[in-house]
Amino acid sequence: MRWPADSQETSVLRSSRSACGANMFEMASLALSGAIAAGYFEASGILWHRHGGTLARVELSNGVYLTLYPRQTQEKYRQVLREHDLGLSLMYTPHPSLVPIEMASAGMLVVTNTYANKTAEKLRSISSNILAVEPTIKAVTLGLKEAAANINDYDRRVKGAEVGWSTTWQESFDETFMERVIDFIERARS
Fold it and tell me: What is the pTM of this model?
């Protein structure tokens, strides 16, 4: 996580692959543009980046561009996450997606969307750094406004970096299930 002494600029990271409709590329672009136009960000003091996709630069508003990070190693990706304050990761799916969880665990405030069983309450139970909003341009824009207003709440961001998400197979699956998986793999090998 970046601390106030690290930089005078806010750094925003957007997850997006333009060719993947589930990532809601257009909605994310319109919401970011709207947040800039509404003055929720002081665009001149912000470093704008995104990962995923093929477009090298995407114009958001009035000469403000998102610059694409090239594909990263896992270690470099972790470093990139720690260098940003705010994340935007939309995914029109019933699962939470790992990217918002990774962003939250790096101490970023991250705006993501709800969908079906993926409710704001369930996402907030994973991390208080996750701001889950309805999948509309207006709601995402307002989510960005809320995140931008709380970037300097470092106590909140540190607390929210402790995500309630399993990180091992043993946490994810009970012993009986793991025994069945191992048995299946062993039978498939013979």
Answer: 0.83
